[in-house]
UniProtKB/TrEMBL annotation:
Keywords: GTP-binding, Nucleotide-binding, Nucleotidyltransferase, Transferase. Phosphoenolpyruvate binds at residues 142, 158, 161. This is Phosphoenolpyruvate guanylyltransferase. It comes from Gordonia amarae NBRC 15530. Belongs to the CofC family. GO terms for biological process: F420-0 metabolic process. The lineage of its organism: Bacteria, Bacillati, Actinomycetota, Actinomycetes, Mycobacteriales. Residues 212-240 are annotated as: Disordered. Its EC number is 2.7.7.105. It catalyses: phosphoenolpyruvate + GTP + H(+) = enolpyruvoyl-2-diphospho-5'-guanosine + diphosphate.
Length: 240
């Protein structure tokens, strides 16, 4: 079984991150973004992928990436091209940094319920294909895309990305959407966070949510905070 040699995550500026999480102030949203990034990187490391690169215009994000044993690349800004441009830049940077890289996994950076076991299984399933992807829990987005590093074709992250990737001929892994629930659960809204918490999240995300004075989806609701439902995970420092 050949796993991708490198994983790439792109994170936008913290100033505008997770604006759809109602009831959260800006400071808490920023903390959640970096916590989910840390838990996602930990899952990638646990899957056996030691070359991890985070691309972002935000210095705080890159500091977090470094603390978690990932390489960081400063992006010019959240400009035209969005996530697809960032991923393309990330692939190019990974190939410069690690010339031996032949396969890359493009991973959403907000997968706090993903586990190393799930990621390893999905990466193994992708091995026979030049390009393969895992749709998100709704079936219209893309949580993971695995591809040969030398491909020049663009990715289609964004609205309806799963349909666009299917149209481009990429292989969809588990099209029945019965596997890898945590891997599929990216977090943009309070409902997404609820679903992730039901599955169990990494220790960094659990700490941010548990530190809220009330319910995570509406800070003034007065309900008790959910907790992690599986063993906590933190950052794993990798000696490259």
């Amino acid at each position: 079984m050949t796993l991708p040699a490198g994983a790439i995550l792109a994170v936008k500026s913290l100033a505008g991150a997770k604006s759809r999480l109602t009831g959260w102030d800006d400071e808490r949203r920023r903390a959640l973004v970096t916590a989910m990034l840390a838990d996602t990187i930990a899952a990638i490391h646990a899957a056996g992928c030691t070359r991890v690169l985070v691309i972002s215009p935000d210095p705080a994000v890159l500091e977090e990436a470094a603390a978690c044993g990932a390489a960081g690349v400063r992006e010019d800004g959240d400009g035209p091209g969005g996530l697809n441009r960032a991923m393309a830049d990330g692939i190019a940077a990974a190939r410069r940094r690690w010339p031996e890289v032949r396969r890359v996994a493009l991973v959403q950076a907000d997968l706090p319920a993903a586990t190393g076991t799930q990621l390893r299984a999905a990466l193994a399933a992708a091995a026979p294909y030049r390009q393969a992807f895992v749709a998100d829990r709704r079936g219209d987005g893309t949580a993971l895309l695995v591809r040969d590093a030398d491909l020049a074709t663009p990715t289609r992250f964004g609205p309806d990305s799963a349909a666009l990737h299917r149209r481009d001929g990429l292989t969809e892994l588990d099209p029945a959407h019965t596997l890898w629930a945590g891997l599929r659960n990216d977090v943009d809204t309070a409902d997404d966070l609820d679903a992730a918490l039901e599955l169990g999240v990494g220790e960094r995300t659990a700490a941010v949510v548990g530190d809220l004075p009330g319910d995570h989806s509406a800070a003034d609701a007065g309900q008790s905070s959910p907790t992690a439902r599986r063993p906590a995970r933190g950052c794993v420092m990798i000696d490259r």
